[in-house]
């Protein structure tokens, strides 16, 4: 089925000028960008987005990192988009990511892992709504 998923290019990858290279991976995989913008998250925005991890030991470092510089947020649309996106991202820990995946090629560590992707259709809907209003999503008819 055609799905939408949510993507973040994280501060490390933006700082290293990898936005275009990562967009190329999305488009080559058949995922269409239907919304996108650059943001520099506040502490409150980062804490809210990652609220499900608030009890984890890495939460403080995660919020610190995600507010350390600008990010790109995107909505990607395509066949089986949630899984297709996670496949091209590779494992959360770049040390475990398959060769040729975004995290294998652009990330240094599990903390600074270049990109985020929703893990399910339900979380995608919630994450998209966290950053985008309905009128910011552009239907792709061709
Ligand atoms: P992300 O998909 O953005 O969701 C939460 C982030 O926490 C994750 O990617 C990692 O960058 C970061 N993180 C740091 N340590 C861990 C860990 N042990 N397990 C999962 N995520 C971690």
Automatic annotation (TrEMBL):
GO molecular function: ATP binding; metal ion binding; nucleoside diphosphate kinase activity
SUPFAM superfamilies documented for this protein: Nucleoside diphosphate kinase, NDK (SSF54919)
EC nos: 2.7.4.6
Signal peptide: none
Gene that this sequence comes from: ndk
UniProt binding sites for ATP: 10, 58, 86, 92, 103, 113
Cofactor list: Mg(2+)
Organism domain of life: Bacteria
A Gene Ontology biological process term: GTP biosynthetic process
Family: Belongs to the NDK family.
Protein task: Major role in the synthesis of nucleoside triphosphates other than ATP. The ATP gamma phosphate is transferred to the NDP beta phosphate via a ping-pong mechanism, using a phosphorylated active-site intermediate.
Main subcellular location of this protein, as a coarse class: cytoplasm
Protein name as it appears in the record: Nucleoside diphosphate kinase
Reactions this protein catalyses: a ribonucleoside 5'-diphosphate + ATP = a ribonucleoside 5'-triphosphate + ADP; a 2'-deoxyribonucleoside 5'-diphosphate + ATP = a 2'-deoxyribonucleoside 5'-triphosphate + ADP
Keywords: ATP-binding, Cytoplasm, Kinase, Magnesium, Metal-binding, Nucleotide metabolism, Nucleotide-binding, Phosphoprotein, Transferase
Subcellular location: Cytoplasm
Database matches in NCBIfam families: PRK00668.1
Cross-referenced Gene3D superfamilies: Nucleoside diphosphate kinase-like domain
């Amino acid at each position: 089925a055609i799905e939408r998923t949510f993507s973040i290019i994280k501060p490390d990858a933006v700082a290293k000028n990898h936005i275009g290279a990562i967009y190329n991976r999305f488009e080559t995989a058949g995922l269409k960008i239907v919304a996108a913008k650059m943001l520099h998250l506040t502490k409150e925005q980062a804490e809210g987005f990652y609220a499900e991890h608030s009890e984890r030991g890495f939460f403080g470092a995660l919020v610190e990192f995600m507010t350390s510089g600008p990010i790109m947020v995107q909505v990607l649309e395509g066949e089986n988009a949630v899984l297709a996106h996670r496949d091209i991202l590779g494992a959360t820990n770049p040390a475990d990511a398959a060769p040729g995946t975004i995290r294998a090629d652009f990330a240094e560590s599990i903390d600074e892992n270049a990109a985020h992707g929703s893990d399910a259709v339900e979380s995608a809907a919630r994450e998209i709504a966290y950053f985008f209003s309905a009128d910011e999503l552009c239907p792709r008819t061709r």
